C-alpha cells in the first residue's frame, strides 16, 4: 500500500521548499524507501525564526473567531483526507493501520478542542481596593500570547503530538516552528498542509525537517524563541533545559509507568487493560505499562491469564487490520531492547514469554524476578516489554511504584474506594487511573508528570496557559477621590 506524500518539500514560513540535501524516510517494517525530505540547514532555521517574528504579529492580531474558524477547517480537512493521514502515520512509523486511524481521530479532536478553548482564554477583574490607599483603582488582567514557540516532537505519535503543540499555539495567537522527529516527518508536514488549506496566514507555522545536530540548538537557544515545547527522552530534555536560556520550557520526558493490581480487582478487566497498555504501539508509548505490582494472593492467576492473553497477540504486517503489533521504529531500537532484556535475564530475571527479535520486530515480552539494579527496571523501556512483580500488600506496592525517577501516570485496579484514594494521595505521578492502566488519556485533560517525567502540562486548555502570560491593567480614577 502506498500513499501520496509531499515528496521533498518542507513547509518554511508558508512556502513549500525543496533542498539539495535530503534525508530518506524509510518504512521500519522492511526498510523500504518512502520518500526524501529536505535536510534543513542552520541558515534555513534562522530564516524560519526571522519570518516567525512577522508570523507572531499576524497570529496575535487574528481575532478569536478567525482562530476558531482556521482550527475547525484544519480539523475538517484532516477528516476529509483521513485515510491518507492514517496510511502516512502507519507507513513511516510503528503503528498498525488501526492504531494510525485512531491517532487521526484524536488529532481531529485535539484541533476541535483547541478551537473551543480559543474562546475561553479569559482574565478576571481585580479588587484593587483590597489595599488601603487603592480605593481609586479599578482593573483586571488578561492573557496575551508569548510570541514564537519551538515545538520538538517524537516519532511515536507523529501527528497528534504535533497537533497538541500546534493547536494550542494557534488558539492562543502564537507563531510556532515545528521540528518533527527525523524518522517520522511526513505526518507533521501533512498537518501543515491542513493549516495551509484552512487559510492560516503565512509565517505563523513552519515545519522544518532536518537533523537535530544541525538545526536543533539554533531553534532552542535563539532569543526570539519564547517557549520550547519538547516531547522526548529525559537525557535530551536535560540538555535542552541547560541550553535554552531564559524562556518558558514545557517538557514531557517519558516514564516507567506502574500499575497496581489488588486482590479485589476485576481480574479479566485488569489483564486486558494492562496487556493493551504494555504493548499498544509496540510499547513505544510514554504512558505504556512497564511495571505491574500484583498482590501475592492473585499473582499466579494473574500471571497465567496475562501470559495467555499476550500469547494471542498477532505480530506482523502493520498495514493489515488483523495485526495487533508491528515493528519498532528501527532495528537499532529493537537491538537496544534486546540488550536490556538479556541483561535482566543474565542477572536472574525469568523470561515468561517473548524475548525474540527479527530485524526491527521484537516479540511481546514478559519478565518476572527482575533485579532492581537492571537497566530495564529503572529506565523507560519504550518497547514491548513488561515486568511483573508480586507484592505482599498495598503499602509495598505503592512504595515500589514510587521507587524510580519518573512519575508520569499510574494505574490501580481495586474495588476498595479507600485504597483508591490512598493511592491517589501517595503515588508520585501526574495522573492516576483507577481501574484503568497507566495508558489512558483524553486530549482535554492536563497531561504531564513529576520527577524525571517532565515540566509543565500539555492538554489543550493547559498548554494554552503555558503559551500565554497574564498582563495586569490598573486604572486610577480621579472621580473616586471625591467619593
From TrEMBL:
SUPFAM superfamilies: ALDH-like (SSF53720). Residues 16-473 form the Aldehyde dehydrogenase domain. Its EC number is 1.2.1.97. It is an enzyme of class 1 (oxidoreductase). It holds the Pfam family Aldedh. InterPro entries: Ald_DH/histidinol_DH, Ald_DH_C, Ald_DH_N, Aldehyde_DH_dom, ALDH-related_metabolic_enz. It comes from the Bacteria. It catalyses: (2S)-3-sulfolactaldehyde + NAD(+) + H2O = (2S)-3-sulfolactate + NADH + 2 H(+). Keywords: Oxidoreductase. One of its GO terms (molecular function) is lactaldehyde dehydrogenase (NAD+) activity. Coiled coil: none annotated. PANTHER family: ALDEHYDE DEHYDROGENASE (PTHR42991). Part of the sulfo-TAL (or sulfo-SFT) pathway, a D-sulfoquinovose degradation pathway that produces sulfolactate (SL). Catalyzes the oxidation of 3-sulfolactaldehyde (SLA) to sulfolactate (SL). Belongs to the aldehyde dehydrogenase family. This is 3-sulfolactaldehyde dehydrogenase.
